[in-house]
From TrEMBL:
Full-protein positions shown: 226 to 923 of 924
Residue ranges annotated for the 4Fe-4S Mo/W bis-MGD-type domain, each copy included: 6-61
Broad class of enzyme this protein falls into: oxidoreductase
Any GO molecular function: formate dehydrogenase (NAD+) activity
Transmembrane segments: none
Family of the protein in this entry: In the C-terminal section; belongs to the prokaryotic molybdopterin-containing oxidoreductase family.
Keywords: 4Fe-4S, Iron, Iron-sulfur, Metal-binding, Oxidoreductase, Repeat
Coiled coil, from the record: none
Source organism superkingdom: Bacteria
EC number from the UniProt entry: 1.17.1.9
Name of the protein in question: Formate dehydrogenase subunit alpha
Amino acid sequence: AVQSFDKVVASVCPFCGVGCQTEVAVKDNKIVQVDGRNGYANENRLCVKGRFGYDYVMSPERLTKPLIRRDDAPKSADIDMRGADPLTVFREATWEEALDRAAGGLTSLLKAHGGKALAGFGSAKGSNEEAYLFQKLVRQGFGTNNVDHCTRLCHASSVAALMEGVGSGAVSAPFNDALKADCIIVIGARPTTNHPVAATYFKQAAKNGKKLIVIDPRRQDLMRHASHALEFKPGTDVALLNALIHVIIEEKLYDEQYIQANVSGFEALKDKVKDFSPEAMAEVCGIDAATLRDVARTYAKSERSIIFWGMGISQHTHGTDNSRCLIALALITGHVGRPGTGLHPLRGQNNVQGASDAGLIPMYFPDYKSVENADIRGQYENFWGQTLDPKRGLTVVEIVDAIHEGEIKGMYIMGENPAMSDPDQSHARQALAMLDHLVVQDIFLTETAWHADVVLPASSHAEKLGTYTNTNRQVQIGRPVLDPPGEARQDWELIVAIAKRIGLDWKYQHVSDVYAEMASMMPSLRNISWERVEREGSVIYPADAEDKPGNEIIFTDGFPTADGRGRITPADLLPPAEVPDEQYPLILTTGRLLEHWHTGAMTRRAGVLHAIEPYGIATMNPREIARQGLTQGDVIEVQTRRGTVEAILRADRDVADGMVFMPFCFNESPANELTNPMLDPFGKIPEFKYCAARVLPT
Ligand code: SF4
């Protein structure tokens, strides 16, 4: 019963972009229970992570004191940190010494080599205020746009296509609108695993008799509820999607009036998809022509159709092209800008939308204003009182390459774990070890923090006040439940402490001051004051007035592009960067598990979640396991041209023949040791979803 708790705090879940609202119960200074609240996104529901994944906050492994690398502890990419004693590599330090050392190292590099020698990774797990401050520090203090975060590894290609096509990277409708749609396409996403509460709306819509079309190379639970389940060949998204567009054009199922009023590029699209008939593409994508025609007709003819997509679309070297096809589908049918219609890239992290909105990306100031636009840059130069870098900065993987080339020599990393999350992990770890100065701010001694010169113990989500923006564009408030352990401090205060030491005159008294400054520069947050978010708990942007609810649907009256029209960019079918061959005959694809979050830093320290999925696995179809002469439960080696990783083999009928799937959360079986760092040319996202591999018994 609630009465037996010391307190119950209203907050939001720290894991995925669904942004479920929570009630966190505390007893004897410990979180003892988390329940769902009746929020717009979750209506009292939580998934296993939100409900049982909280005890990482109280883990004895939390960092409680600042650490400085020992003079005799060499940096090495090969360090095996599992089970190692941190005090053999680091010594404890006072805050004064650690902050002086952290900022001093960055300042020395700045003076010796200029801002281009520095870079920062912020975090999609931090608050909007932290994201804003972090990008401001890099831009104003370091004098460079070399600032990025894990959006580069998830929806960067989707955002590139959306910015180009509809002038905004945000979703056009909330996922709740699945209940208002007549036809729902879910493509390249596995919501029952990665966005479980959002998936409940899709299942409910299917139960209500709506058409649910699930398109994914891996079989998945949502397909049991689907009217159409298309297990297509991996890497052939453009073939499949252009075939759908071909049918819509050939059978004149497009919305001519809508196109004339709102869309450019239709003629070029018609031309491009001429050769993509379902009959020609059936063999390429592995879906028969009749099914492709039926799906195209169902989507186009429905009164209201909506598309959801995930990393299966975005994490390819042709990820931007994949998203361009989805945008074209919506634009030619007029399935956008009305309730129950639209484009919704399902956001991964709890604040990847907000961190991107706040400018934690190398090409944009807050609200996606180009750093290369002189007028915009002038506004920020006036506002921050500093000349700013006129060129876009480097992205996550480009920063790693620039370290190898000796261009970047120092980094500040807050709450990100590139030693686990970047593709071609050995290359990434070598880069971290090569840095002259690395400051890591985190709650655990992550795989990345082991490479640091200075480690700053920070606050978890449960210890901080701040705003977070979920996949629906809801700005929500997260409230502190506990005090940070030991000497750990608030992240925003640490960013300010570093800023002051490198000579910036920052005077924030409270995190709400940061929000107010940020919102003053962001039209998207107009009419959404800190006081309003505190009072209402959640406000969807954009909002037309302080006393009116935000707009769930955008693009109701054209698009925020230069001419107000949506722009179609036709896409070509390109192969993945590395395809199977005799030496490496399988396709390796990576992703997440229901129980573990990203690199596992949090959920592997959560007792219930760790107990359900305790060790590193690779999964294959039982048929493929037999073909390879292996047995479920074997320890196998998965090999690619980048490396070899051991994992326990699990049989999974969802995985297609010729494929091996690995989650990237296990540091004993690090999937990203194997992945291909080749980038999509527009979104600069690596091809996590496809590379050539082989499996061997150990
Ligand atoms: Fe948390 Fe996402 Fe699960 Fe909701 S669906 S409880 S936000 S992990």
